[in-house]
Design a protein that fits this description.
Blueprint: E1 14-16, H1 28-35, E2 41-43, H2 72-75, E3 78-80, E4 86-88, H3 91-133, E5 142-146, E6 150-154, H4 156-162, H5 175-186, H6 200-204, E7 206-208, E8 224-229, H7 233-249, E9 253-255, E10 258-259, H8 271-274, H9 277-283, E11 290-291, H10 296-299, E12 309-311, H11 321-335, E13 337-343, H12 354-367, H13 372-386, H14 396-399, H15 403-409, E14 422-425, H16 430-436, H17 443-457, H18 459-466, H19 473-478, H20 486-496, E15 504-507, H21 519-524, E16 528-529, H22 531-534, H23 537-540, H24 547-559, E17 563-566, H25 572-585, E18 591-592, H26 596-603, H27 611-623, E19 647-649
Parallel strand pairs: 8-9, 8-10, 8-13, 9-11, 12-13, 14-15, 14-17, 15-16, 17-18
Antiparallel strand pairs: 1-2, 3-4, 5-6, 7-19
Helix pairs in contact: 5-20, 7-12, 13-24, 16-17, 17-18, 20-27
Length: 651
């Protein structure tokens, strides 16, 4: 049967010839052959051979078919195509094999290239990270973002040059962390909501009430008490409050306290140069009797000869009231006078009668007021810190008295919003550094300097140190007994979330190591200021060479700050400032008091810890110290005034 087909690539006059025997008459071989017939292209006649010339090219779609003729071409594995070219049946398989091999090679090359790109990326990333860890990134010019001006270029090298001698690079102990801190500040993230806040509701429930009295005045009939307090202004303040309580306990008349000259502080200031004597005597008149000086008869007595001189060596630290009643009162009654020389922290906080404890709070928070010249300059300092003449802070009238109101009267024009500022007390003077027995990365030079200082000012420590009876610097640091260095302080502030624009008032100018020790702080927080920056030389002139009076200005600047951060919670200034802020702050004066033991553990991992983890751990360690709690038993009444003797807990 002939079939004409125009759609399969065959000529119109061609037919497909099939074996058309009836199926029943076909042999088995014929039937198998009919199942798989040979397609033969014929030219018009049934038996004519295939004509290559008259046949068009075979359809590429069909290609070589497995249904080929059983001719010699089929048996030999090759057949001619319609152009007379022999078609190799094995060629498609070979070609497929070659194509498969080609694709495999291309795929391998692509994978190798991809791996090379990934390896290159990680190598570059590792190289940059290693440079950051070495503290070399930004040595020439570190660009930090600033929201107000777009970008601020910070040059560590320039700051080093400005600091003069004693250059300190970021490649020291905390070089890696300081570089990470710089990058964190550059991101200019939003500050945490609670950064400038105290837990208001529980904190504001406490209100001042140490001014309330429930006893009759003391006549002071048992004799006179003189006191010469040692230390700086803060140690002297504690000594004054303690001696007021001792005078009431012993029913004695108190002579206005005197201050001992210290070769550390080198200040000749006396009580009347810092505090208002008249206010002190009149405010406490309902508690004890106070006189300005002794009578002529008593002045002529040789107090040492008659056994009326009592030194710190004669009184155990934080002695109970019973000690004074048993050992001091008999001398007072016998001689009519007693002189405490070098009197300091010699009265316990517990146990002590309720009213005596309240008297101690009353003296600290109400009876001690700075002299007018300190108040006036302090008010000027606060005005410039806030960059606003019309703003009066919560504590201003307690710190600068009537000068807070005089600043308010200077208001002119449209009211400007006051700038917030953070006060930072860097307790890193040489006396603190030497007394701590810690090591701060200064090498052999530091060790020699501090040993020489201890031999002069702390001979007992030198003796114990040489006898190896004191803990090692490493042990002291792990226990949190070392003050934070300026480098550790700036890492803490950055981790807490203070942004780069934060204005920081630094109290205390005599930092051990000088300006070079502040390189890290000034590099990361350029808005760092001191009273010397804000006050002119003419305004500071009355206070020059009087370290205690200058410290009074620092006390005012720290106490009135929107937030106060300390580096050593055991220092007297930090304790007095934080207590004052609690007493008068109304739950709106947050204080950052680091847990040095926990921070020491975090800082020990400075070579490996990631910044995000460091940030989380520092915030957790500091946040726990902001919890509002009443005074723990035996702790300082000046630092923790939240107790019924000092403050009242109300709704």
């Amino acid at each position: 049967m002939a079939v004409s087909n125009n759609n399969n690539g065959f000529p119109t006059n061609s037919v497909l010839e099939l074996d058309d025997k009836p199926r029943a008459l076909q042999s088995k071989a014929d039937r198998e052959k009919s199942e798989f017939p040979d397609f033969r292209v014929i030219d018009g006649s049934r038996n004519s051979p295939r004509s290559c010339q008259s046949s068009p090219i075979q359809s590429p779609r069909l290609g070589p078919s497995r249904f080929s003729s059983g001719s010699d071409h089929s048996r030999s594995g090759s057949m001619p195509n319609l152009l007379g070219v022999v078609w190799d049946r094995k060629r498609p398989a070979k070609r497929a094999k070659r194509m498969k091999s080609w694709y495999q090679r291309k795929r391998v090359k692509g994978v190798v290239a991809l791996i090379a790109v990934i390896v290159f990326f990680f190598m570059v990333n590792w190289l940059m990270l290693s440079r950051l860890q070495d503290g070399r990134v930004g040595a020439k010019n570190m660009s930090l973002e600033n929201s107000s001006s777009g970008k601020v270029s910070v040059s560590i090298q320039e700051n080093l040059k400005k600091s003069g001698r004693g250059k300190r690079k970021h490649s020291g102990t905390y070089g890696r962390m300081l570089s990470l801190a710089a990058h964190a500040l550059a991101e200019n993230k939003r500050e945490p909501k609670d950064l400038w806040q105290e837990p208001l509701v529980p904190a504001s429930a406490w209100r001042p009430c140490a001014d309330q009295r429930s006893w009759m005045p003391c006549e002071g009939k048992n004799g006179y008490i003189m006191v010469t307090a040692n230390g700086g202004i803060n140690q002297q303040r504690v000594a004054v409050c303690n001696i007021v309580v001792i005078a009431r306990l012993l029913n004695a008349t108190l002579v206005v306290p005197k201050f001992m000259y210290s070769d550390v502080w080198t200040d000749v200031s006396q009580f009347g140069d810092i505090y208002q004597e008249e206010h002190f005597t009149t405010y406490l008149a309902s508690d004890i009797r106070i006189v300005n000086e002794l009578s002529k008869e008593l002045q002529s007595l040789d107090l040492e000869a008659i056994g009326s001189v009592v030194t710190d060596a004669d009184i155990p630290k934080e002695s109970k009231p019973s000690f004074y009643l048993k050992n001091i009162l008999p001398i007072l009654i016998k001689n009519g006078i007693i002189h405490f020389v070098g009197f300091g922290n010699r009265l316990a906080f517990d146990p002590i009668p309720f009213q005596l404890q309240r008297l101690r709070c009353r003296c600290n928070f109400h009876a001690l007021r700075f002299v007018p010249k300190v108040q006036e300059t302090g008010a000027l300092l606060l005005k410039r810190l806030r960059q606003n003449a019309s703003y009066v802070g919560v504590l201003d009238r307690y710190l600068v008295g009537p000068y807070a109101e005089s600043v308010l009267k200077e208001k002119q024009g449209h009211a400007k919003k006051a700038s917030k500022y953070l006060a930072l007390h860097l307790r890193f003077e040489i006396d603190m550094v030497a007394h701590s027995l810690c090591y701060f990365g200064g090498g052999e030079k530091e060790r020699r300097e501090l040993e020489a200082y201890r031999e002069i000012h702390f001979p007992t420590l030198t003796y114990l140190e040489k006898g190896k009876k004191l803990p090692s610097p490493e042990a002291l640091r792990s226990e949190g007994l070392c003050p934070l260095t300026p480098e550790e302080a700036v890492l803490m502030l950055t981790a807490l979330g203070f942004n780069r624009k934060t204005q920081i008032f630094v109290a205390g100018a005599n930092i051990y190591g000088g300006r070079s020790r502040l390189i890290s702080l000034t590099s990361l927080y350029p808005n760092l200021i001191t009273k010397e920056n804000l006050l002119s030389s003419r305004e500071l002139e009355p206070f020059m060479n009087f370290s205690s009076q200058l410290a009074a200005l620092d006390f005012i600047g720290c106490t009135a700050a929107d937030a106060f951060a300390m580096t050593d919670s055991g220092s007297q200034l930090s304790s007095l400032v934080s207590g004052y802020r609690i007493y008068y702050g109304g739950g709106r004066m947050p204080t950052i008091r680091p847990n040095k033991r926990r921070l020491a553990d975090i800082f020990l991992k400075n070579n490996t810890i990631e910044w995000k983890i460091f940030e989380q751990r520092v915030r957790k360690a500091v946040r726990q110290t902001k919890h509002v709690q009443s005074r723990p038993k035996g702790r300082s009444i000046y630092r923790y005034p939240r107790c019924m003797e000092c403050m009242c807990l109300g709704q």
